[in-house]
Specification:
Largest sheet: 3 strands, antiparallel
Order of helices and strands: HHHHHHHEEEH
Helix content: 55-70%
Number of helices: 8
Structural class: alpha+beta
Strand content: 15-25%
Distance between the termini: 29 Å
């Protein structure tokens, strides 16, 4: 697989590669023992006191990079070994920050260790399951119009008008961004509003159920 990583992620990987072995072990241990949370900043806050070797201002970007890598691997569905190979190639191609060739030898086992953390695998799997579907919502907009109604003589002023609302719904299907339009009237708007309100109530009920069952909500 061809993999491209952002400059900030390469910087985080370079920082991780400079960590002493003991510091790397503490980072892995802290992530392994932490509860699964979907927000990387929250995870960084949870483990910050255990990772004194990385300044708090740098720890959050490091955790963000790890979350990104886990999500990419989970969505790609490739075997861990193949993903590590693609990641190593991407790091070597990155122009900045450049990781010296002599440092690359220890980078691979470091990445293998960091990409074998059960907590982060769980978080990535939860994110995939939440977004798994044929089409994924992207954005929505409602355009409201006044449409004139003409009589028999189109040169005369309109005899009336109607109000319309066009729902423009954007979504992703595979790697493509698509959209479709649906024309609505006021009753349709009210019906959609009721459906959304009902879904919000069900969301609240399900969140309460998770709390009672002491199951973490991994979709936040």
């Amino acid at each position: 697989m061809a993999l491209e990583i952002q400059q900030e992620d390469t910087g985080s990987i370079a920082l991780i590669n400079t960590l002493p072995r003991a510091a790397l072990e503490r980072l892995v241990s802290a992530l392994e023992s932490a509860p699964p949370v979907s927000n990387p900043q929250e995870m960084a806050d949870l483990i910050a006191r255990q990772i004194v070797s990385i300044p708090a201002s740098r720890l959050a970007p490091v955790i963000e990079t790890l979350y990104t890598l886990y999500h990419i691997r989970e969505l790609s569905g490739v075997r861990p070994a193949r993903f590590i190979a693609a990641l190593m190639e991407a790091v070597q191609r990155a122009p900045h920050p450049h990781i010296p060739q002599k440092e690359l030898a220890k980078l691979r086992p470091t990445l293998e260790k960091l990409m074998s953390i059960g907590t982060l695998r769980t978080v990535a799997k939860a994110a995939r399951l939440q977004r798994e579907g044929e089409r994924l919502y992207c954005e929505a907009k409602i355009l409201s119009d006044i449409r004139p109604v003409f009589g028999a003589d189109p040169e005369s002023i309109p005899v009336g008008a109607v109000l319309t609302h066009t729902l423009r719904l954007g979504y992703h299907e595979g790697s493509q961004h698509k959209e479709f339009h649906v024309v609505l009237d006021f009753d349709d708007l009210m019906a959609i509003n009721e459906v959304i309100l009902r879904a919000q109530v069900k969301e609240k009920s399900l969140r309460n159920m998770l709390k009672r069952a002491k199951l973490p909500n991994l979709g936040e």
